[in-house]
Amino acid sequence: MTMPAQPMISIALSMRNAAATIGCAVRSLLLQTCTDWELLLLDDGSSDDGVDRVQRFADARIRLVSDGQRRGLAARLNQAIDLARGRFLARMDADDVAYPERLERQLAFLQANPEVDLLGSGMMVFADDGRPIGLYPVRETHEEICSRPYSGFYLAHPTWMGKTQWFRRWRYDPTCRRAQDQDLLLRSYAHSRFAVLPEPLAGYRQDALSVKKSLVARYFVARAIAREAWRDHAYAAGAAAIALQAAKFSADAFAISSGLSRRLLSHQAVPFTATEASRWRDVWRNCHQSLEPSCAA
């Protein structure tokens, strides 16, 4: 398909050594009911053949950037923000799967609700083999999403779609190695309007916990909380939230050391209905009905 002169939606996707999953992620975008988009696919210094796999997709809407450097997710997303030509910017990861109506539904909502800066959606959590595990918890209104900002926001990063100008105002902190989304939301929520469509419009691959990943993520969340709490003079609330992050890390470390990490992750998900499971299986199956690279890990 040819590239639109100025696409309505720019999709920001950074990948590093994602050859095993990038084929399905891209395929799910090619199956979108909304076709007015460009994919900004930024390779972050991969050493596998993921770039070669992306180049097999003969679609002019895919803009691949590969400079051989490793700069980190936040820096790559800022690069995508700078390159974006669309009025709206959507997020996606290299191991995610988009439901075919994702872009259409989110675009319609944002156009009908111009006061909303950033929109998320429901999300199906799945295992490497495509088995559905559960739904990510959802809060729909700005007030619900931001009711306890120092404890986190129910606004799943892989489902984000918002005004490109909003992203250019706030941007990602390139010093954040993890939890880049929570840092950005903490800085912006008091000056923005968020919303979430409750229906699942994205699939999120469950990643196994590790002590290092958990520690790094909790550290950067705590750092963002400390900064914003100090700015807002909310010292007691900030201290309590930082203590909660420490407690969550302890729980993660125990689950990992005892071999219960996947059970812990599954427990955090919300049960799904038979209809939601059937719909997810259709999405997964359709992403594999292609000659392009498989998304199986």
Set out the fold topology:
Layout: E1 9-15, H1 22-30, E2 37-43, H2 50-55, E3 62-66, H3 73-83, E4 88-91, E5 97-98, H4 102-112, E6 118-126, E7 132-135, H5 142-145, E8 161-163, H6 164-170, H7 180-188, E9 194-205, H8 211-232, H9 235-257, H10 261-268, H11 274-288
Parallel strand pairs: 1-2, 1-4, 2-3, 6-9
Antiparallel strand pairs: 4-8, 5-9, 6-7, 6-8
The rough form would be described as: globular
Rg from alpha-carbon coordinates: 19 Å
| Helix/sheet category | alpha/beta
CATH top level assignment of the largest domain: Alpha Beta
Largest sheet: 9 strands, mixed
The CATH topology of the largest domain is Spore Coat Polysaccharide Biosynthesis Protein SpsA, Chain A
Span between termini: 28 Å
Helix-strand pattern, N to C? EHEHEHEEHEEHEHHEHHHH
Query: Which superfamily, in CATH terms, is the homologous superfamily of the largest domain?
Result: Spore Coat Polysaccharide Biosynthesis Protein SpsA, Chain A
Query: What CATH architecture of the largest domain would you give?
Result: Alpha-Beta Complex
Mean pLDDT: 85
Number of helices: 11
Please provide the count of β strands: 9
Helix content: 40-55%
Report strand %.
Answer: 15-25%
Low-confidence stretches: 291-297
Give the domain tally: 2
